[in-house]
Amino acid sequence: MTTASSHRRQANAIRALAMDAIQKAKSGHPGAPMGMADMAEVLWTDFLSHNPANPDWANRDRFVLSNGHGSMLMYSLLHLTGYGLSIDEIKNFRQLGSQTPGHPEYGYTKGVETTTGPLGQGFANAVGMALAEKLLAARFNKPGLNIVDHNTYVFVGDGCLMEGISHEVASLAGTLKLGKLICLYDDNGISIDGKIDGWFSDDTPARFRAYDWHVIDNVDGHDADAVARALTEAKANVDQPTMICCKTEIGFGSPAKAGTSASHGAPLGEDEIIATRKQLDWPYEAFEVPEDVYEGWNCTDKGSVAEANWQQTFSQYVDSFPSEAKEFERSMSGGLPDNWSATMDALLLDSQAAGESLASRQASAKVIQTLAELLPEMVGGSADLTGSNLTSWPGMKPVDASSNEGNYIYYGVREFGMTAIANGIALHGGLIPFTGTFLIFMEYARNAVRMSALMGIRNIHVYTHDSIGQGEDGPTHQPVEQVANLRGTPNMSVWRPCDGPETVAAWRHAIERQTAPSALVYSRQGLPHQDRTAEQVQNISKGAYVLKDTDSDPDIILIATGSEVAIAVEAHGLLAAEGIAARVVSMPNANIFEQQDDAYQESVLPKAQRKRVAIEAAHPDYWRKWVGLDGAVVGLNTFGESGPGGAVMAHFGFTAENIVKVARGLK
Ligand SMILES: Cc1ncc(C[n+]2csc(CCOP(=O)(O)OP(=O)(O)O)c2C)c(N)n1
Ligand SMILES: [Mg+2]
Predict the structure, then answer these.
(1) What is the pLDDT of residue 319?
(2) Residue 142, SS3?
């Protein structure tokens, strides 16, 4: 029987580790771990179903610390419960190469489910994880054999709830009745600038009730029994997500700094740490945790029992439903079906043979249809632009609250929430999310796009209406600087295909890129099909290739992407008529081309040929590295204009005639 005082003693281990590690690093945020220690202790030792010996166990409960500045809470929990995060790693908090970076980073530390730090996004990731659980449960569970059946817990602070994204995702979580999502709010009345009354006076319980959440209000976050009662009540409600509002004191235990923003983001100081040890009745050395406290925390036995029980269920499942079990394992590992390569090879050849001229968003829709049949783990969606992004397909099943089943999410007008939820779906495992919006509204989602790249997860971002060529909607809807922004994002693979076959290659690459995201950038307007030899078809996957050439060495090289490839091809003909031998290089994915060996790069873009013109209806600066100081770029460094797409393109110089003029200027 755990008593109130033993709960407190357990929790104090977190407080001590947090203040010691932060003091040693001379940097960090002690206030949140010290304030949430009691909540975390109850959750992690008495409720969370996890196995420290196997952090990848498919049916573990997911835990997200959305207020990631409290990272020492996470590391203390992993250390104490038995994840093998050593005390030396705790001592190395925030040092280069440690497993205890400043904020929890996915992939750095076993047991960290997502990277958090940009406030609010962890909350959104948790919504995605809870949604993934629900979809996988609907797909795989059989009567009496619930192989997917876990909760998702998320801690949020005031900052997370101030962020707009928390509104987007809480609203959708309520609508979709994500009943296994349980959020604990660290309601401490403090953020960096001080007492929050002057900038955050929402009635948070009322706000969440309005989203149709189950709200448990006024819980004393320092009372282990009260937190346990709230968690029990939350788990019992599987029809609504639950928000548990825990009143806490930031920096709990520090005589001088508790309850003030002074404990938020700076070490407590040596003297204050001594005073805090006294107040907490924690008479141990820095980084010392007494054996009985370690024993109280250790979850390895409980964890292995929990997983073994699940394994038993799964074994029965394997016996009764062998093919489903195989599919479950394949999906959870992120692997592709045996017929994947052959199907995609055929699709590429068919697309080349069909020779259809169509918008790349339409070409994408055709690919999606094949993919959806091949990959039941694909979960599509759009931020209220399904009919424009063409992200849906015949046979698609919308996810709604009552059916639970489905493979398409109507995210509503919530680009940031959508992208961060899709990150959570990808992180959960078992599903391949893709989401759609106009390229221009990538900006609303921007930080979640960055997070997908930073974490290295397979979240596929579909962006249509990719340039001024979209036309009438005008400058607010016409991207200019966005493609360069995406290309400049480390670990992001950006495709801007010029026709059907390039679109097939783009999707294929995005799906095969298991540990990194892709941005698929598609046109609204129709694009002519390009003729290709078999070799050219194969070379699409190298990111850039010679599409039109000359018999002699080229006098000039035209490099184009997407909708501008056809214009470059037209210019190639006009230049030939003038006796100028041009080569046209289609470069649907510069990121991939850069990874090709020197010989291939040289065969496409010979270094000696410095007369180069890049053509892309976007900001020109990106292209300077491909054309050099001697080359030219046909791009635009102003905003666009409203008008029919063709007229706008011509207005800004995206015509074969203008390319010829620019090319002549280089001659
Ligand atoms: C998107 C974003 N904006 C700003 C910050 C910087 N920041 C980190 S913590 C914090 C205050 C958060 O307040 P709260 O969640 O109440 O944390 P507490 O002080 O209670 O620990 C801010 C502004 C951030 N991490 N993410
Ligand atoms: Mg706060």
Answers:
(1) 98
(2) strand
3-19: burial string, b at 16+ Cβ within 10 Å, e else = eeeebbbbbbbbbbbbb
Q: Is 515 strand, coil or helix?
A: coil
Which are the catalytic amino acids?
A: 415
Q: Could you tell me if the CB of 174 is within 6 A of ligand 1?
A: no
Tell me what pLDDT residue 4 has.
80
Ligand 1 close to Cβ of residue 67 (< 6 A)? yes
pLDDT at 3: 82
Q: Are the beta carbons of 185 and 244 closer than 8 angstroms?
A: yes
Q: Give pTM, 2 decimals.
A: 0.98
- Regarding the beta carbon of 69 and ligand 1, being less than 6 Å apart is answered yes
128 lines ligand 1 (CB under 6 A): no
Query: 155: which DSSP letter?
Result: E
d(CA 157, ligand 1 centre) in Å: 8
Please give the pLDDT value at position 356: 97
Identify which ligand lies nearest to the alpha carbon of 266: 1
Q: Look up residue 204 and give its two tokens.
A: 């948070």
pLDDT of residue 667: 63
Rounded Cα–Cα distance for residues 115 and 50 (Å)? 19
| CA of 32 relative to ligand 2 center, distance in Å | 8
Query: Of the candidates 457, 412, 461, which has an alpha carbon nearest to the alpha carbon of residue 431?
Result: 457
With 0-12 / 13-18 / 19 or more C-beta atoms within 10 angstroms meaning exposed / middle / buried, residue 617 is buried
> Which pair of structure tokens corresponds to residue 458?
């397979």
With 0-12 / 13-18 / 19 or more C-beta atoms within 10 angstroms meaning exposed / middle / buried, residue 315 is exposed
Atom of ligand 1 nearest to the CA of 264: 19
Name the residue with tokens 């006294």. 278
Please, which residues bridge with residue 187 across strands? 247
Closest ligand relative to 156 C-alpha: 1
432 within 8 A of 133, measured Cβ to Cβ:
no
What is the predicted pLDDT for the residue at 402?
Answer: 86
Q: Which residues of the chain have a pLDDT value below 70?
A: 1-2, 667
- What gap in Å lies between CA 398 and CA 377, rounded to an integer? 14
